[in-house]
Design a protein that fits this description.
Layout: E1 4-7, H1 13-24, H2 32-38, E2 42-43, E3 49-52, E4 58-68, E5 72-81, H3 90-104, E6 109-113, H4 116-119, E7 125-126, E8 132-133, E9 143-147, E10 158-159
Parallel strand pairs: 5-6, 8-10
Antiparallel strand pairs: 1-3, 2-4, 3-4, 4-5, 6-9, 7-9
The structure holds coenzyme A (COA).
The site of coenzyme A has 16 residues, from helix 1, strand 5, helix 3 and helix 4.
Amino acid sequence: MAHTLTAEKPEHGPAIEAVLDRAFGPGRFAKTSERVRERGAVLELSLSRVALSATGDVVGVCRIWRVEAGAPVFFLGPLAVDPAAQNAGLGADLVRAAIVACRATGGNGVIAVGTARFFEPLGFSVAPAQRISLPGPVDPARVLWMELRPGGLDAVQGLVRAPAR
Ligand SMILES: CC(C)(COP(=O)(O)OP(=O)(O)OC[C@H]1O[C@@H](n2cnc3c(N)ncnc32)[C@H](O)[C@@H]1OP(=O)(O)O)[C@@H](O)C(=O)NCCC(=O)NCCS
């Protein structure tokens, strides 16, 4: 089925919550990435992407947050596709579209927490050990990043926190 990818709008919020509940289940708020988001990361609706079905229902989301880790950087997530729409390339398409939007801002890079098996083909790599820390436990093999311009990650290090302004 054909899907449309579009920037997130405030009115997508309740449908996004429903997709996140269906995709992640009850553990979704226990993730360390949630600690980043609740500590003042700034949600960038214009860079986040939702996937709409032919009937206009939200079936996937890739959110982008503005954070700081030694330098301004974007934080990707949650990424989720409704279980009924998974394995059709939508998750990868959502990430690619969000990255294109982030790159167009002239930003430094994007950090994501997830499996390298999914994110590496999209241009992410595992961040060097000890370079980035998160406000909670995380498997270092799941701390991924991607530069948006040459050298964009050179100054990115330390705790992922709320942007200075
Ligand atoms: C992870 C998720 C977003 C992937 O969405 P999707 O639309 O099913 O993924 P795609 O069809 O775009 O898959 C792209 C590729 O990644 C692979 N892939 C998909 N899910 C994967 C996973 N959990 N782990 C490893 N690889 C995965 C696919 O096999 C595919 O590989 P291929 O191109 O070689 O066939 C979706 O499964 C989901 O919502 N899962 C529950 C929530 C979650 O775990 N989010 C990710 C947090 S990091």
